[in-house]
UniProtKB/TrEMBL annotation:
The lineage of its organism: Bacteria, Pseudomonadati, Pseudomonadota, Alphaproteobacteria, Hyphomicrobiales. It comes from the Bacteria. Residues 8-62 form the HTH lacI-type domain. This is LacI family DNA-binding transcriptional regulator. CDD domains: HTH_LacI (cd01392), PBP1_GntR (cd01575). The keyword DNA-binding applies. GO terms for molecular function: DNA-binding transcription factor activity; transcription cis-regulatory region binding. PROSITE patterns: HTH_CROC1, HTH_LACI_1, HTH_LACI_2. Keywords: DNA-binding, Transcription, Transcription regulation. It comes from Rhizobium fredii. Residues 8-38 form the HTH cro/C1-type domain.
Length: 339
């Protein structure tokens, strides 16, 4: 487990700024008749030292915090809501409560959430690993006084513990699935790859694996559309009209794959006889009826459980391994032919 920074006090900020502790308090609260030059000097000192105001001043003075901060891209995304469910089901019986922030894959938003949440002196903080992190966020995390855990990513292990799948392994699994079926005209359909770094990693692993077999992957992506069914439908229609020779499509997630399938069915293009389709994350499996999407299933709830279990062990100052890699399973549906 990595070392953690100490909690910076008002007095340390005061010494750095060359003013009294009361002056620092007034500046940071926006109170008092303080000159602009002094305000600037105090704020600069606070930033340099990594000072975070204790928004729970006094309330936690006699006991440890029982709150855990969790920052995920979106609560409405079933993937992350199930990860969150695993976290809550593990922490709440032990007397911990979570408070949640949504980053929407935006580094600036994540930075402000980290800053705000750490100011409450939480027992721990859990963050999604699949996004670009700002330099300010990295500084805040380096100065934290609590354990920090990375969710959803086990390729780039970070913080005190990582719990998630290997997205590179996922890309390779899909490539092998297509190759075993002798499919060579293959496309990838995705969105927001500049923000979702895990999805980008899956895409690159697929492309690299196919290239090793002499296949050039055709990629159709869009950065200004959400990773939802409507986007999958829209991009699939574009793909089929411009590249009718395509035989197989891997989608960024199950939602986009279902959107793509809706277009293929309505256009009278048979699946899997004409097009083979593979999704990612397994969220479609529970509701499959006639169309059973071939997909990479990820144990989403278990990722949350493993992350929370590691945090509990850290709060008891027990040793934990560096990571837990979630097992992946390619589930054969009826959207790809049997090998």
């Amino acid at each position: 487990m990595s070392s953690r920074g100490k909690v910076i006090t008002l007095q340390e900020v005061a010494v750095r700024a060359g003013v009294s502790r009361m002056t620092v308090s007034k500046v940071l609260r926006g109170a008092g008749n303080i000159s602009a030059e002094t305000r600037q000097r105090v704020k600069q000192a606070a930033d340099e030292l990594g000072y975070l105001p204790n928004n729970l001043a006094g309330s936690l003075s006699s006991r440890k915090s029982r709150m855990v901060a969790v920052i995920i891209p979106s609560i409405s995304d079933i993937v992350f809501s199930e990860v969150l469910s695993g976290i809550n089901s593990t922490l709440r019986p032990r007397g911990f409560q979570t408070f949640i922030g949504e980053s929407h894959f935006e580094p600036e938003t994540e930075t402000e959430l980290i800053r705000a949440m750490l100011s409450f002196r939480p027992a721990g903080i859990l963050l999604n690993g699949g996004m670009a992190r700002s330099a300010d966020a990295e500084k805040l995390l380096a100065r934290r006084s609590c354990p920090a855990i990375q969710l959803w990513d086990c390729d780039r292990r970070a913080l005190d513990f990582s719990a998630g799948p290997s997205h590179e392994e996922s890309g390779r699994l899909v490539a092998n699935h297509f190759l075993e079926r002798r499919l060579r005209r293959i496309a990838y359909v995705g969105a927001e790859l500049d923000r979702d770094l895990c999805a980008r990693r899956r895409h690159l692993a697929l492309k690299s694996s196919l290239a090793g077999d002499g296949i050039d992957l055709l990629s159709v992506t869009c950065e200004n559309r959400p990773r939802q069914a409507a986007t999958g439908r829209f991009l699939t229609e574009q793909l089929v009209r411009t590249h009718p020779e395509i035989e197989a499509i891997h989608f960024l997630n199950d939602a986009m794959a279902l959107g793509g399938l809706s277009y293929l069915h309505e256009a009278g293009l048979p699946v899997p006889e004409r097009f083979s389709v593979v999704g990612f994350n397994g969220t479609s499996l529970a509701n499959a009826v006639r169309t059973r999407l071939t997909t990479i299933d990820v144990p989403r709830t278990e990722i949350g459980e493993k992350a929370a279990q590691a945090l509990l062990r850290m709060t008891e100052e027990e040793d934990v391994p560096e990571f837990w890699q979630a097992p992946l399973a390619l589930v054969q549906g009826n959207t790809t032919v049997a090998a």
